[in-house]
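Task: sequence design from structure.
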């Protein structure tokens, strides 16, 4: 009787290809999800940057308004109008100039350089280099 046993042919390695395909699909899925997460993070950072730029622009507008307000408050015409209207100041008709005679009872005090060779509280440190000329009280 002829042998009816068939020799088994090895199955193609389809199970290995299926597992490799599954691994690649999982890897691609993880990569796509990672890229999506990075994109969402990028969008949140972009939104924060936009809000910060708007805040900076608002503060720049406030600074400009404050500078304009300060300039208007410091203008000579504004100072004169406030002084005359609110404080009651007015131009004097008779202006008197007061001078102090040079022969006043107290002489003008003059500061001079410290004497070299004396050691004061500073332990030998001299301030003479800072003062090149004498200082007068009327200066």
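Answer:
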């Amino acid at each position: 009787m002829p042998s009816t046993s068939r020799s088994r042919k090895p199955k193609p390695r389809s199970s290995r290809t299926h597992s490799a395909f599954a691994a690649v699909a999982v890897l691609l899925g993880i990569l796509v999800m990672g890229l999506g997460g990075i994109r969402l993070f990028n969008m949140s950072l972009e939104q924060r940057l936009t809000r910060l730029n708007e805040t900076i622009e608002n503060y720049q507008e406030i600074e400009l308004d404050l500078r304009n307000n300060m300039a208007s408050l410091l203008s000579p015409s504004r100072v004169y109008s406030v002084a005359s209207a609110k404080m009651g100041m007015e131009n004097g008709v008779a202006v008197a100039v007061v001078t102090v005679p040079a022969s006043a009872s107290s002489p003008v005090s003059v500061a001079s350089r410290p004497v070299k060779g004396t050691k004061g509280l500073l332990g030998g440190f001299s301030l003479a280099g800072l003062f090149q000329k004498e200082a007068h009280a009327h200066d």
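The two ends are 139 Å apart (CA to CA).
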